[in-house]
Amino acid sequence: MLKDFKFDKVDQRYVNFKRSDLGEQLDRLQRIVQRLDIPVLILVDGWESSGKGFVINDLTRELDPRYVRVEVFEGATEEEMRHTSVWRFWRKIPSRREMVVYDRSFYYQVFNHDERTDKKLAQRVQELLALEKMLVDDDTIVIKLFLNVTEETQANNIKQLEQSTRSQFLLSDEDYAQAKDYASHQKWFDKVLKATDLPYSPWHIIAAEDLKLASKTALGLTIELITAGIEQITLRRTSQEDLPTHEYHIEQPKLDDVDLSLKLSEKEYDKDLEKLQKEAANLVYECYTHDIAIVLAFEGVDAAGKGGAIKRLTRHIDPRSYKIYGINAPNQIERLFHYLWRFQIELPQDGDMVIFDRSWYGRVLVERVEGLTPQRDWQRAYKEINQMEKTLTDHGSVVMKFFLYIDEDEQAKRFQDRLNEPEKNYKITTEDWRNRKKWDEYILAMNEMLDRTHTENAPWYIISGQDKYHARHQVLKYFIQHLKDTLARNTQKASKMKKNKE
């Protein structure tokens, strides 16, 4: 990569082109990808004082400004540090009608700020590569450019910036740190570049000794890569190749094991309710004081009692510390983005709690059963969801998933009750009746979901909702025990770290 880069043998393919002509070619491609609903993400990284701003300016100059964004990523802000490493990038991904240029890439933090150890590199890169793969699999064209300069050129560029009061603000500690120890930074950059150089989105190293030539090269490469990406994505979308019939064998489906006979009398329920609710509230506060985010996902059969369980769970919790999102079909804006985007942007910062009434699991439930998403896409979602939840728990967040289950007869009874009682009419929808007609298909999808996405770090708690008192009681008990276990592990970890320091 950088160590073996030959500055005397740079790419000369675009030397005779005008930058404006290349920009106009890119403008034509912008209209094509917009028409085809193909998002484009261009990551421009490189040495500090290597001319990234100059190149980005040329990349975007001829484009329709309504459909291009430039997002600047430097060191993570205090708010961004209170989320996972990928959260800030998810918020700024392109829609299916946009080209987005990142001034500095996903990997800038790794290049410049993270602890330089193999363990830290492996963990951070794994999360970022997973994000990159999700975008590519969702038909995003991802282009990665790295501007390379010699030690002498970087030093000269810094001097030029210092001499102008209009450009001094562009210099940062990173500029001087890299210039002071160029060789060490080059060695580390090489390691990061090699770890993140992928067959489907490789790094393109561009010599930035001559910025006009560097811009031509960046424009030319971008044109080539978008053209190739359009061809590949169009071919994939129009391919008549059928996937094999989806088969997933489960020896013992989890919903078969749910004991629907479990009951709790109203008297027993009322006896413990307030005590459990206050204990839950105290534990949420403890998580707040320890900067632990809590993410809850409620799924289940229609009319199984998710709303009632959520209401009882949050009864004594400070309403300023949590948000509840009722998830419906994606709206017009949300459909323009990766399906996980609308959930990622609502994830809590450290210390807060978010509850999703329905969640990202719609991808492998309603979207699968109703044929709203191609098979190849929802099949991929299990791995993507597991990765998202792992990234959350690796960051230190709590992820709990509750599945409330009732049988077909109980559902019919509750649907009828909702029809008969005017104050409950709002709870019944045409989608509920539609889903009921496909009961067996939904149960099949639910069993597969529960089997493939139950993990140690983000478990499913499957609860009989046949008796509402039992269900609400169980949600509270599981919630309390999970938070107790989490806080105990945190205490043990802190104690161990303290001993190691001593």
TrEMBL record:
This is Polyphosphate kinase-2-related domain-containing protein. It holds the Pfam family PPK2. It comes from Fundicoccus ignavus. InterPro entries: P-loop_NTPase, PPK2-related. Signal peptide: none annotated. Residues 18-215, 264-487 form the Polyphosphate kinase-2-related domain.
